[in-house]
Amino acid sequence: MGTAEPLIRNVSDTALWAAVYRADETDRPDALFRDPFARRLAGERGQKIADSVPGAARADWAWVGRTYLFDQLIREQLAQGVDMVVNLAAGLDARPYRMDLPAALQWVEVDLPGILDYKESVLAGETPRCALERVRLDLSDLGARRALFERLGRRAGKALIVSEGLLIYLGPDAVATLARDLAGPPAFQSWIVDIASPGLLRLLQKNLGPQLERASAPLRFGPPEGPEFFVPAGWRPIQVLSPLATAARFKRLSFFMRLVALLPEPRGRQGSRPWSGVCLLAKAG
Length: 285
Hints:
This protein is an alpha/beta fold. It contains ten helices and seven strands.
């Protein structure tokens, strides 16, 4: 007898899961953002994945807060003259369709062929609000990604890198190598990342680890240094924003989590306390 196919088959399926949270947020009358494409992109499989994860509904604030903060930082960077956004592991992100963007903005989505093919099929007939390019690439292919970064760097005047939900799946050495590669092109001036503390990483590994391990997508990155991890690779943190504090501000937390949100934000090295941050990094030097 064969075994049933797991709901999360690979790391790309986590994009279906993330889209469910954006869809649920969009349905709220007090939504912090609206993504009218998310429900279609999530599909039936995405909903089944979300329903299968214990406690997933109680963690919706973390996904929503992260997306809201990325949106906020992207808008701020566009106002400061960014003419290219490079979205690494873009998944089912629909920002080129849902955000108010300059028509001349170059938006480049980079991800595996399967997930980009799926997104194109779902969004067929929709019109992006800027100049959208999709690059089918495995980011673990160092030579190919370095060639891509060099090519994009020649086209951009001031580029913003976005990597929402990517780094946690990479080991520290892989993250450091990616950071150094991104620091190479002079036009790559800013980078938005999300990171977890070692304590949060262990909690996520405990709660989600078995499903993600079976999908060959283990959670790996929770740097003890916090945002300072990126400094030796050529990037300095200039803003560190808290999804938890954001969720508290918009009254999206349970009573217990409201109490947690009252604690001072950790600074410097991260330890056993669960914490996450959305960080804007600037090119050092």
